[in-house]
């Protein structure tokens, strides 16, 4: 992996609760809250200069801009929610550019697994553990925050374990 184990280890404990919160709120309300997006961005903005070389740190904001522009386009086309686009943009600077292909494969696996598990639980008695969750009644819509948050968590965990 391109991300260093030390960088992933520093980011993981701060990003983990935010990502779990995003997973929960998107499942329960089908919304990713702006304060969660801002908190994730703040983790990178405040901790990044201390754990990433400054030239690399500055370039990571390009990741944010590119993902935000793509997210806005996908949102305009109805393929993605606005909160999903903002969260993906806030998560983008955490990713080392050399890991892009790996991250896309990890996201695809997380998305497919999350979708399958969500739909399976939705149609079993297990959904009674959280009967008021909006995602059970959302029709064909899927809480993408589950896959986005899960992907960042898995990426940082794998980076901490297997990073350079």
UniProtKB/TrEMBL annotation:
Pfam families: Peptidase_A24
InterPro entries: Prepilin_IV_endopep_pep
Keywords: Membrane, Transmembrane, Transmembrane helix
Name this protein carries in UniProt: Prepilin peptidase CpaA
GO molecular function, one term: aspartic-type endopeptidase activity
TM region(s), chain numbering: 6-24, 36-54, 60-82, 102-121, 141-162
Organism: Citreimonas salinaria
Protein's UniProt keywords contain rRNA processing: no
Lineage: Bacteria, Pseudomonadati, Pseudomonadota, Alphaproteobacteria, Rhodobacterales
